[in-house]
Target: Selection and upkeep of intraepithelial T-cells protein 6
Amino acid sequence: MMVSIMYKITTVFLILQSMNEVSFSVRFKVSSTPSVSVALGSDVLLPCTLTPEKNGEKMEIRWFKPMYRPYVHLYINGKDDYTAQMPQFANRTELLKENITRGIFPLKIHKVTAEDSGEYYCYVESSDHHGMAAVQLQVTVRFKVSSTPSVSVALGSDVLLPCHLIPEMSAEKMEIRWIKPMYRPYVHLYINGKDDYTAQMPQFANRTELLKENITRGIFPLKIHKVTAQDSGEYYCHVESSDHHDKTIVQLNVTDKSLPETSRDKHRIIIIICASLTIVSFACICLLLKRLGYCQPQPSDKLTARAYTFCHSKHESGQYYRA
Model:
């Protein structure tokens, strides 16, 4: 009887002890927001909190991308540890600890780059529990598309139509459309990392080339071979990323001579001036001959046919005559 009572007491004690241990083994959940958007070059906060509210000072907090190591940021033994940090985040991360005793410790990333886009994991570990949350960082790349206002080229030559991004950034994964005022068909289309000629304007077949030597720097001029008179006009360089787009316009002037239009204009002006000077000089000679008394109505005067005609007409009108 005594043994049975002692057994029951021992069992109750063990159950109570077990319940007491469970109550002290605090379980927590790590949470964040599904996604965060930020403009290129700005600073961003990636949220991470514990539920229920719990002091995280003595916990290990690891921020990492899909690859577990190296870390984006590591907080361990009450301090930040940068020894295994990803090189691209060097001197750019900061774990905010103002509210760490309440289980709130967002990660701040300074001067966000396009390469910072992607999924981040906030992993928290205590002595007897751990949890993790994911957050998607979307870097909004704002850019301006720029070119020169106009380009002139001789008929039959090759020409480059400039187009580049400001600020400088890679356009490898962007869509680049060169078009004339009519949106489709295209003059040239670059999409999914390659040229696409399926919807190209027939007049440009086998004559266009998007130069990609500097596309990682945001420079991608369009080369048109053997320019025709019909190629003249406005061209639009339209660039589109996953979350932004912009365009610019360049005017192509096709000339029918090898000389630039400005040089030809100068030559026209020179010819007009020379012709005008010739006419004025001739008139002056006739006037001089008249004043010297050589303008007589007789055709036997030793004058040129034009001078005689000029003087004779003046004589008949009664304006000039010398006895």
